[in-house]
Amino acid sequence: MERNIVLIALFAALIAALGLVPKLTLISGVPISAQSLGVMLCGTVLGAKRGALAVLLFLLLVAVGLPLLAGGRGGLGMFVGVTAGFLYGWVIAAFVTGWIVETWRSVPLFWSAFAASVVGGIIVLYVPGIIGMALVLDKPLAVATGFATPFLPGDVIKAVIAGLVTAALYRARPDSVLSRSR
Amino acid sequence: MRHATDMPEQAGGVALAGVTFIRNDRRIIDDLTLRLDERRIGLVGRNGSGKSTLARLIAGLIPADSGDVRVGGVDVARDRKAAIRIVGILFQNPDHQIIFPTVAEEIAFGLGQLGEGKAGSRAGALEMLSRFGCTDWADRPVHVLSQGQRHLVCLMAVLAMQPGLIVLDEPLSGLDIPTTRALTAYLDRLDQQIIHITHDPATLAGYGRVLWLDQGKIALDGAPDQVLPAYVAAMQGGQDDLADLAG
Amino acid sequence: MISLTSPVETPFHRWPAGLKLAGLSAATFLMFLTDDPWLLLAALGGVVAAYAIGGWRFLAAGLRLLRPVWVFVVVVAAWHLYTADLVGGSAVVLRLLAAVGMANLVTMTTRLSDMIAVIRLLLAPLRRIGLSTGALEIAVALVIRFVPVLAQKGGNLAEAWRARSPRRAGWRIVAPLALMALDDADHVAEALRARGGVQ
Question: What is the ipTM of this complex?
Answer without folding.
Answer: 0.89
